[in-house]
Amino acid sequence: MKIYNVLIYFVIALIFSLLILIYILLRNIQLRTRAEKELRMKNEELTAIYEENIASDEELKENIHELIQKQEELGRSGDRYRIVAESTMDIIWEGDLINKKRFFSEKVYDILGYKSWELEDLDLWFTIIHPEDLEWVKEGIKHQVDEKIALKTFEYRVKCKTGNYKWLLSNTKCEFDENGRGTAVFGAFTDISELKEQQQKINNLAYYDSVTGLPNRVRLREVVSDEIENCAEINSKFALIFMDLDNFKYINDSYGHMTGDKLLLETGKRLVRILNENMTAFKLGGDEFIILIKASPLKEEVEVYSKALLESLASPISIDGDMFHVTHSSGIVFYPENGLSFDELLKNADTAMYKSKESGKNTYTFYHRVMGNLAMEKIKMQANLEIALENKEFLLYYQPIIDVALGKITGFEALIRWIHPKNGFIFPDRFIGAAEESGIIIQIGKWVIISACKYAKSIYDSGFRNFYISVNVSALQIMQKDFTDFVLSTIEDIGLPAELILIEITESVLVESMDLVIAKLNILKDNNIKIALDDFGCGYSSLTYMRMLPINTIKIDKSFIDDIKSEDDVKSLTGNIILLAKQLGLNVIGEGVETQEQLDYLKRHGCDMFQGYLVSKPVPAVEIDNLLKREMAS
Ligand code: C2E
Ligand code: CA
Ligand code: CA
Known about the structure:
alpha/beta, Beta-Lactamase, Alpha-Beta Plaits, eight-stranded mixed β-barrel, five-stranded antiparallel β-sheet, 24 helices, binds ligand C2E, binds calcium ion
């Protein structure tokens, strides 16, 4: 009878253990399925790693299927208990709370590399938990015990015998007696390292820019939104610096995306170098970066950082043997003064950034309310420019260029004007920048070249010979692959002698790709087209360019002419510039000559030509025709 009772107890105990085991296994399956479902949902968001995940999903399904099969085999015998423990993918364990011991299934060796007895002491497990996870895992266990929670899951890292860490999903079951004391504890560990790795990859794709590795716009939105909440609570402030690289488009267009990407990567690295613990750099689309500055920065501090950012990009970046000078324009906003939401802050920072672009680039601007509609205006302006081109609203004015010694007209500079049907006469300074930014300058520029060449041909045909027409060309135009072909075929089609055309370039064309520009200008020069460096003296390395470029002429910027106040002003640089240019065999044109005094100075210093209000403002073609008739008659 006694033996019979013992047998019954034994069978009951066995059945009970098996039931618990089945429960844990089913619970694991449930968690695995949930993890699998989550993963699949994320996969849909990110098709790029879709296939990879499908593969692992299938693997996971296979494992689960295997597990279910094993369970089905589960019978009443004790042997089967061991079989299940050994054949599941998980580590099954049991804690002996009285003797402070822990027993693991054989899988602990396969997954972590330890023999069960190496971790026998109950507390040894805690010595292999990742230091960053240890505290909250302990807290979690305490919470489970204190609150008498039967089953609890954790995800944390555990050190393998090899020293590497693995992510485990821990499923712990506690049993309590009627006094609330823990009587038994057991559970299972599932190796979820692969799953975690994939999640990390998904995170990286979703939150980080693939070129620079910096957090992206999605992440920025999250971080800034959190910061807004935080600052609203503790009455604090933060700043955003919105940076946009100047003329990056040219580099991408002329050197290709590979070079563009390398440049962005290097730019990102340089930015990161100047950050402190309160600053984070983000990469938005295209060539935009954002710096977040936390902890209530003062305006003066942000100004210092902005200057440091400009400086960090000041030295040229070398990529595959080419040197690139990258500058940027930025706009600065403060929370809460300049906006209460992420979208508002970003929009206003963008507006301030545009202001920097407008004021000549390579600078920073603090946002101010009056700028509000500026961005909108710009978009409208760009749309209007397309309409203007279609409706032929552009017109060329011409300003005579005079030979200083002879006092006779030697050329004309073509200067564009926009006659808007509603807004009337618009000067180029108001729209060339926007046209360059939207790229429509390429079409406008082609129109200018064709129109100026046609006009030159008409003057030539009227019998006036010793002159040239000067045309302003934007950097973006020169960067176009077909630029030289276009110029050469235009003059050929029109039948204009090439020496009657002068192309005016500014130093901005050289900032991106010196070699390419030089090659193109050489083709033009070889075809007898003249080239002038416009606005000479404004840039920072004019002398270097003057020597390297295949130019015939420099045009001294108006600001230098303005400096000529009196005859014996020895401080004026203009005389030295003329001297230097002459030594290099270049022609010199003085621009914006308004007084006789200035003209006399130029004459004395051997300047070849000049243009300015002293003789004539830019005027419509008909007035030039009249002027020429008079000149030919005299
Ligand atoms: P820029 O090439 O430096 O042209 C000279 C500017 O100085 C012209 O302004 C001209 O009207 C002005 N100017 C000439 N003499 C005097 C003077 O004695 N006093 C004063 N105060 N100003 C004088 P404008 O026509 O408004 O053109 C401004 C700028 O717009 C040009 O500067 C040029 O960079 C650009 N631009 C004009 N036409 C074109 C074009 O067809 N294509 C491109 N890409 N840019 C153009
Ligand atoms: Ca010019
Ligand atoms: Ca000029």
